[in-house]
C-alpha cells in the first residue's frame, strides 16, 4: 500500500476558552464549581466547564419559563426566521464546529465534517420549515407548545443530538434547557454562541453543563413540562420512574443491539461496506449500530474473509487527520466497558479477531474487533457494547434470521442485505425495530422519523412525527 | 465451445453477486475524499505518469502528430530528466509503424486499438485482420472492443469467442478488452462483462473507448477492481485494469490510485497492472509535479503541447 502522508485538519480554526460558564437567559455566567473536559485522543484538557447545581438548574428553568410567554406567542413564521438563521450560521461555522466536535468527542474529522455538521444544519432547516405549518402537521388545527422542555443528550453525537432535541422544540414554540453530556459539553456551549449570534431572544435556549446529577435536577424539576432523553437504557429507566405520575411528557431514545442481516443473495461488496459502516462508524458509539451481524451460513466464510480484508484497510488514529476512519474512544470509562465486555466475549468462547493496527500511546483507543462463533447465549450478543466490536452469528433460513434478530430486549434498528426486493419487504415487515435499512445502514435524514421498540425507548425524533413530542 | 460450457458461462455470469448501485457509488465517493498530500502526492504523481497510456485516437491523426506524441512519451518533461516516461502510446493501427520507429527499444509500450474500434460493429474476420496488422506493425498491446450489441442481447458466447479469437491473433501482444461500460447500463453488467473478458483470456480490462458520452467513472472502476481481485482469488490469474476517457486532472488520478490502494492493494499499484487511458492528464500531472519540486506553478506554456 502506498502510505498517505499526514493530512491534519487545522486545529487553529477553533478558539477554545480556558473555561466556560453556564448559558442562562442569553448570558454566559461566571463558572463557580467546574469540571474538566479532555480530548480523548491525547487526554489533554481542553477547557474547564461549569458544574450546574440545583439552584443553577432552577434559574435556567425559570429563564426558559419567562421566555416561553413571548416565544410561544410569536407567529410561526417569526420563529422560523430564527431557526433558518441558526441553520445558516451553523453552515458558516461548520469547519470550526467540526474540528471542535472531533477534539471533544474523538470522532474522525471526516465524519464530523461530512456527516454530523451537514445533518445538524439540515435539522434546523427542516424544522424551520415546519414552524409556520404546525396546523397542517396532523396534530389538530391549532396545536399548542408544551412549555419548557428539559433535554438531556449523550456524548456520541453531541451537536447532532442537540439539533434533534432543540430544532423541533423551538419550531413548535417551546423553550428549552439542555444538558450536554459530561464528556462532550463544548459544542453545546458553542451552539449557545450561535444562538446569541442569531439574536435568539434570551431564555429560549439555556445550556446547563454537568454530570448525571445535573441531568437529574433538570428532569425532576417541577416546572419542566417535557423531558427528552437520549442515552443508556439504565438511565432511561430511572428517568421514566422519576417522571411517572408528574404529568410531564416523556420521550426516550435508548440503547440498541441491532441485527444486520446478510442473505446469500446480497450484493456482497456493498454488504461488507454496510457492515463496516454499521459497526465502525463513530467507533461504534451509535445507539443504532449494527452490532450483531447475522449472516446466512452458506456464505458466512466468504463474507467474513471479505470483511477481514476490508477491516485491514481501516485507518485508526488521529481524529483530526482527514484520512482517519476510526477515531478515539470517547472516555476512559467507555473504554473500560468495551474492554470488559470483549474479555467476556473471549472467556465465553467466541473467537476474537482484529486487524493489525498500531494504536497511539496516549488517549483512549480500541482496535476494530469482530467476534465469530457467537451464539444468542453469549453476553456480547445481548448487551450493548457501544464500541467498535461486532458479534457475528449465522442463520439458515429467513425465518430463523427474523427470530434471532427480534430475540433481544432492544428494537431500535436493523439492516437487511439482499438483491431480492420481495424478501426485503417481507423481512422488514416482521422485524421489531424502529428503523429498518435495506441495502444500506446508518443513514440519517431530518425528514425521517427515528426511534425504538421495547427497551430502545419510545417516541420518535425527526420528520413530522418528531413534532408530536413537542405539541399538545 | 460446447453448449454445456456456454450455458455454464451464462449461469456463472448471472450467479455473480449483484452490485448495489447506491452502495458502490457511495463507497467510491467516500474514497474520493482521501487527502493525498506532500510526499505521498509526489510518489503518486510519478506512479501516475508511469501508468499513462498516452493516447491519440482522432480521424485527424497524422504521422507528424504521432511522432510528436511518441517523443513526449519518452521524455514527458524535457526540463526535468528525473521525470519518468509514460507506460505506452495508444494509437490507431494505421499509425502503429510511425510510433514504432520512435519507440522501439525504449521500453515504452506501443498499444493499438483494433477490432473496428470504437463500435466493434464489423465481421470477425475484419476485426482479426485489424488486430494482426497492428501486431505486425509493432504493437505489443492491443486494445479491442467487445460487441456490446451481442453482450446486451445476451449472446455471451459470441463475445467470448471473439475475445478468444482476438487473443489468438494477438500472439505475444497483451490484450486489453474494452467493455465500453457507458453502454452497458448497469454495474451488474460491468461485473459480468469483466468476468466474461477475463474468462476469455484478457490480460487487461478497460472501461471505455472515450468515444461515448460516459467514459471512465470511479464506481465503474471500483467494480472492475473488485472483479479482478475476485478473479485472481478464484482462477489464480492476475488481470490489469485500465480506466480510459474523462480522466484529466491530477486530482482525478489520485482518486483512482486511492481506489486501487484500498480495494486491491499493492499488487496492482504498477504500470504492469493499471493504466490510465488519457491525453490531457499528462500535462496536468507534469504541472503538479513541477509545483511540488519548485514550490510554484508554471504556466501552461512551460509544458509541451502534443
TL;DR?
The complex is a heterodimer of chains A (472) and B (306). Chain A has 472 residues and is an alpha/beta fold. Chain A has helices at residues 54-73, 76-92, 94-105, 109-130, 158-171, 186-197, 212-220, 233-243, 268-280, 300-311, 332-347, 379-382, 398-406, 421-430, 465-468, and strands at 19-20, 23-24, 27-28, 34-38, 45-50, 148-152, 175-179, 205-207, 226-230, 249-253, 259-262, 292-296, 351-353, 369-372, 389-395, 413-417, 435-438, 457-458.
Report the principal-axis shape of chain A.
Answer: globular
Shape of chain B: globular
Find the structural class of chain A using helix and strand composition.
Answer: alpha/beta
Helical content class of chain B: 40-55%
Biggest beta sheet summary of chain A: 7 strands, mixed
Number of separate domains of chain B: 1
Mean pLDDT of chain B: 96
Tell me the name of the CATH homologous superfamily of chain B.
Answer: Aldolase class I
Q: What's the number of structural domains of chain A?
A: 2
Q: What percent strand of chain B? A: 5-15%
Please name the CATH architecture of chain B: Alpha-Beta Barrel
Taking all Cα atoms into account, the compactness measure Rg of chain B is 19 Å
Organism (chain A): Paractinoplanes tereljensis
Pfam family, one (chain A): Aldedh
InterPro entries (chain A): Ald_DH/histidinol_DH, Ald_DH_C, Ald_DH_CS_GLU, Ald_DH_N, Aldehyde_DH_dom
Domain Aldehyde dehydrogenase (chain A): 31-471
Structure overview:
The complex is a heterodimer of chains A (472) and B (306). Chain A has 15 helices and 18 strands. Chain A folds into two domains: 11-254 and 454-468, Aldehyde Dehydrogenase, Chain A, domain 1 (3-Layer(aba) Sandwich); 259-438, Aldehyde Dehydrogenase, Chain A, domain 2 (3-Layer(aba) Sandwich). Chain A is globular, with a radius of gyration of 22 Å. By secondary structure, chain A is an alpha/beta fold. Chain B is of the alpha/beta class. Chain B has twelve helices and eight strands. In chain B, strands 7-6-5-4-3-2-1-8 form an eight-stranded parallel beta sheet. Chain B is globular, with a radius of gyration of 19 Å. The mean pLDDT of chain B is 96. Chain A binds chain B through residues 1-5, 7, 110, 114, 265-270, 273-274, 313, 322-323, 419, 439-440, and chain B through 17-20, 22-24, 26-27, 33-41, 43-44, 47, 226, 257, 261-262, 265-266, 269.
Amino acid at each position: 500500500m502506498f502510505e498517505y502522508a499526514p493530512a491534519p485538519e487545522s486545529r487553529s480554526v477553533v478558539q477554545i476558552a480556558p473555561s466556560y460558564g453556564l448559558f442562562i437567559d442569553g448570558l454566559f455566567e461566571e463558572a463557580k464549581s467546574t469540571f474538566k473536559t479532555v480530548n480523548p485522543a491525547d487526554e489533554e484538557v481542553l477547557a474547564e466547564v461549569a458544574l450546574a447545581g440545583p439552584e443553577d438548574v432552577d434559574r435556567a428553568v425559570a429563564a426558559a419559563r419567562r421566555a416561553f410567554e413571548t416565544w410561544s406567542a410569536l407567529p410561526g413564521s417569526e420563529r422560523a426566521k430564527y431557526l433558518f438563521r441558526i441553520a445558516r450560521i451553523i453552515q458558516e461555522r461548520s469547519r470550526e464546529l467540526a474540528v471542535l466536535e472531533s477534539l471533544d468527542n474523538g470522532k474522525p474529522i471526516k465524519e464530523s465534517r461530512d456527516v454530523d455538521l451537514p445533518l445538524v444544519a439540515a435539522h434546523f432547516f427542516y424544522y424551520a420549515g415546519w414552524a409556520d405549518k404546525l396546523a397542517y402537521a396532523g396534530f389538530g388545527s391549532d396545536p399548542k407548545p408544551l412549555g419548557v422542555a428539559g433535554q438531556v443528550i449523550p456524548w456520541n453525537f453531541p451537536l447532532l443530538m442537540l439539533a434533534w432535541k432543540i430544532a423541533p422544540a423551538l419550531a413548535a414554540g417551546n423553550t428549552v434547557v439542555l444538558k450536554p453530556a459530561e464528556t462532550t459539553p463544548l459544542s453545546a456551549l458553542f451552539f449557545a454562541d450561535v444562538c446569541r449570534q442569531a439574536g435568539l431572544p434570551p431564555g429560549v435556549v439555556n445550556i446547563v453543563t454537568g454530570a448525571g446529577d445535573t441531568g437529574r435536577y433538570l428532569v425532576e424539576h417541577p416546572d419542566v413540562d417535557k423531558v427528552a432523553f437520549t442515552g443508556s437504557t439504565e438511565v432511561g429507566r430511572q428517568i421514566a420512574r422519576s417522571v411517572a405520575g408528574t404529568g410531564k411528557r416523556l420521550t426516550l431514545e435508548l440503547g440498541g443491539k441491532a441485527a444486520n442481516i446478510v442473505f446469500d443473495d446480497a450484493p456482497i461488496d456493498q454488504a461488507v461496506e454496510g457492515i463496516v459502516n454499521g459497526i465502525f462508524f463513530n467507533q461504534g458509539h451509535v445507539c443504532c449500530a449494527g452490532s450483531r451481524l447475522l449472516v446466512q451460513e452458506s456464505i458466512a466464510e466468504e463474507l467474513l474473509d471479505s470483511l477481514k480484508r476490508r477491516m485491514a484497510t481501516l485507518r485508526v488514529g488521529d481524529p483530526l487527520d482527514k484520512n482517519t476512519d476510526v477515531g478515539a474512544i470517547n472516555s476512559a470509562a467507555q473504554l473500560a466497558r468495551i474492554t470488559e465486555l470483549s474479555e467476556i466475549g473471549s472467556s465465553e468462547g467466541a473467537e476474537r479477531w482484529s486487524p493489525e493496527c498500531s494504536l497511539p500511546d496516549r488517549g483512549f483507543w480500541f482496535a476494530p474487533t469482530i467476534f465469530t462463533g457467537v451464539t444468542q447465549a453469549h453476553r456480547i450478543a445481548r448487551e450493548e457494547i457501544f464500541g467498535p466490536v461486532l458479534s457475528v452469528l449465522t442463520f439458515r433460513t429467513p425465518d430463523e434470521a427474523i427470530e434471532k434478530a427480534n430475540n433481544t430486549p432492544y428494537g431500535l434498528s436493523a439492516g437487511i442485505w439482499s438483491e431480492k426486493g420481495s424478501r426485503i419487504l417481507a423481512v422488514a415487515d416482521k422485524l421489531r425495530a424502529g428503523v429498518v435499512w435495506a441495502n444500506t445502514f446508518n443513514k440519517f435524514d431530518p425528514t425521517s422519523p427515528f426511534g425504538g421498540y421495547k427497551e430502545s425507548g419510545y417516541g420518535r425524533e425527526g420528520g413530522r412525527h418528531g413534532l408530536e413530542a413537542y405539541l399538545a | 465451445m460446447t453448449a454445456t460450457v456456454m450455458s455454464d458461462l451464462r449461469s456463472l455470469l448471472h450467479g455473480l453477486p449483484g452490485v448495489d448501485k447506491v452502495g458502490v457509488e457511495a463507497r467510491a465517493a467516500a474514497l474520493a475524499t482521501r487527502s493525498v498530500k506532500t510526499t505521498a502526492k509526489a510518489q503518486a504523481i510519478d506512479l501516475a505518469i508511469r501508468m499513462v497510456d498516452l493516447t491519440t485516437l482522432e480521424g485527424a491523426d497524422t504521422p507528424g502528430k504521432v511522432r510528436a506524441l511518441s517523443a513526449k512519451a519518452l521524455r514527458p518533461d524535457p526540463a526535468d530528466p528525473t521525470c519518468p516516461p509514460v507506460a505506452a502510446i495508444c494509437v490507431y493501427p494505421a499509425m502503429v509503424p510511425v510510433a514504432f520507429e520512435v519507440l522501439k527499444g525504449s521500453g515504452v509500450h506501443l498499444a493499438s486499438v483494433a477490432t473496428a474500434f470504437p463500435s466493434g460493429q464489423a465481421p470477425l474476420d475484419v476485426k482479426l485482420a485489424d488486430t494482426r496488422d497492428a501486431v505486425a506493425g509493432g504493437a505489443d498491446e492491443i486494445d479491442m472492443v467487445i460487441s456490446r450489441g451481442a453482450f446486451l442481447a445476451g449472446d455471451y458466447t459470441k463475445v467470448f469467442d471473439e475475445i478468444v479469437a482476438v487473443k489468438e491473433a494477438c500472439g505475444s501482444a497483451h490484450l486489453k478488452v474494452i467493455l465500453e461500460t457507458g453502454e452497458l447500463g448497469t454495474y451488474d453488467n460491468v461485473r459480468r462483462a469483466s468476468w466474461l473478458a477475463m474468462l476469455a483470456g484478457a490480460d487487461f480490462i478497460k472501461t471505455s473507448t472515450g468515444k461515448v458520452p460516459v467514459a471512465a467513472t470511479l464506481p465503474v472502476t471500483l467494480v472492475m477492481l473488485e472483479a479482478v481481485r475476485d478473479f485472481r482469488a478464484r482462477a489464480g490469474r492476475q488481470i490489469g485494469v485500465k480506466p480510459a476517457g474523462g480522466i484529466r486532472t491530477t486530482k482525478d488520478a489520485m482518486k483512482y490510485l486511492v481506489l486501487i490502494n484500498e480495494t486491491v492493494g499493492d499488487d496492482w499499484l504498477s504500470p504492469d497492472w493499471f493504466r490510465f487511458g488519457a491525453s490531457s492528464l499528462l500535462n496536468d500531472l507534469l504541472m503538479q509535479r513541477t509545483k511540488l519540486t519548485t514550490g510554484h506553478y508554471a504556466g501552461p506554456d512551460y509544458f509541451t503541447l502534443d
